[in-house]
């Protein structure tokens, strides 16, 4: 397969390394808004660099991988749909809900393939939790706790373009709540704090957030996130049922220190970031995309799945701003 990759930043570079080494990829062609960056990545991976997106499409690829800036996602998805190309795109589909709905309409009208990059669906821990819940091993779930904590804030220029903490970060947790439990969110109540670095206040965003989600079977979910977790990168999910409990992400590198006498100390090497923590999952999702594009596998995360998680994030943002519970039925696209 000849694969085109648009966007050669941090995640694009990681994906390029995976694709360049994949036995099903015969050639890789890359482009970036900064051509020198694309050329440098091509030199490191053995890929071919082209000047721009037009040249990328002219290279006649078998499929497109989108790791460009968020604002470029929807136009690239739509262009690929019109060209009949399968697309893998890092989340989100677009910077807002109307843009997401428009891009998904293009894909559906063209009848093409779109797989979204919710890499936690390919993490061994989350997959094991899903099996435990679906098999009934935990009994009726009554409580779920999900968290995502970054070790340091992103660059200031990124914050106004990110979509906010609920859409950019917690959307992964919202996707996992749906994927692991098999239930839908019916109502949210969310809040946030901008007491940290001023760049979040300046962008109208928050650096720390919390949401209470009610699922359609009555299970209660708390989801929290922060940009300022200096102990390390911490992503976990706790599932409590009437018959048992299970935790995802509790391993030797989780940045936790027990306060109990004789409890485990802080890890010598806590997870520094998402690329390290989810490296196997990122590789697995691209392997799955190549199989999906070849018609060998069902799509594990299509655009409608991504939309469902985004609608929860949108509801949380409305709840935060308006300081009230928000029903998912209030959010368009359901």
From TrEMBL:
EC class: oxidoreductase
Which key words tag this protein in UniProt?
A: Oxidoreductase
Which residues does the UniProt record annotate as the domain Gfo/Idh/MocA-like oxidoreductase N-terminal?
Answer: 1-118
Matching entries from InterPro entries are given as: Gfo/Idh/MocA-like_OxRdtase_N (IPR000683), GFO_IDH_MocA-like_dom (IPR055170), NAD(P)-bd_dom_sf (IPR036291)
Q: What is its EC number?
A: 1.1.1.18
* One function term, GO molecular function aspect: nucleotide binding
GFO/IDH/MocA-like oxidoreductase domain residues are: 126-246
Superkingdom to which the source organism belongs: Bacteria
* The family this protein is said to belong to: Belongs to the Gfo/Idh/MocA family.
Q: Which PANTHER family match?
A: BINDING ROSSMANN FOLD OXIDOREDUCTASE, PUTATIVE (AFU_ORTHOLOGUE AFUA_2G10240)-RELATED, NAD(P)-BINDING ROSSMANN-FOLD SUPERFAMILY PROTEIN-RELATED
Record protein name field: Oxidoreductase
**Origin species:** Streptomyces griseus
């Amino acid at each position: 397969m000849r694969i085109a990759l648009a966007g050669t930043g941090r995640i694009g570079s990681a994906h390029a390394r995976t694709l360049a080494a994949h036995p099903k990829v015969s050639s890789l062609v890359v482009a970036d808004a900064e051509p020198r960056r694309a050329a440098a990545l091509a030199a490191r991976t053995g890929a071919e660099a082209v000047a721009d997106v037009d040249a990328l499409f002219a290279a006649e690829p078998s499929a497109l991988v989108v790791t460009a800036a968020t604002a470029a996602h929807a136009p690239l998805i739509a262009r690929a749909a019109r060209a009949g190309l399968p697309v893998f795109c890092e989340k989100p589909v677009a910077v807002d809900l109307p843009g997401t709905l428009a891009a998904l309409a293009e894909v559906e009208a063209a009848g093409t393939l779109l797989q979204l990059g919710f890499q936690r669906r390919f993490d061994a821990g989350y997959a094991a939790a899903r099996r435990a819940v679906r098999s009934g091993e935990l009994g009726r779930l009554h409580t779920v706790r999900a968290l995502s904590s970054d070790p340091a804030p992103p660059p200031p220029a990124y914050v106004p373009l990110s979509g906010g903490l609920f859409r950019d970060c917690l959307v992964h947790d919202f996707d996992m709540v749906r994927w692991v439990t098999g239930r839908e969110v019916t109502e949210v109540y969310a809040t946030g704090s901008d007491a940290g670095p001023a760049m979040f206040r300046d962008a109208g965003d928050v650096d720390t957030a919390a949401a209470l989600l009610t699922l359609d079977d009555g299970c209660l979910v708390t989801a929290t996130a922060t940009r300022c977790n200096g102990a390390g990168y911490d992503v976990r999910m706790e599932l409590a049922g009437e018959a048992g409990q299970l935790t995802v992400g509790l391993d030797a590198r989780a940045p936790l220190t027990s306060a109990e006498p004789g409890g485990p100390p802080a890890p010598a090497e806590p997870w520094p970031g998402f690329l390290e923590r989810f490296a196997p999952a990122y590789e697995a999702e691209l392997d799955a995309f190549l199989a999906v594009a070849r018609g060998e596998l069902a799509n594990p995360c299509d655009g409608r799945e991504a939309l469902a998680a985004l609608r929860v994030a949108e509801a949380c943002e409305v709840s935060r701003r308006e300081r009230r519970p928000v029903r998912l039925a209030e959010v368009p696209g359901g």
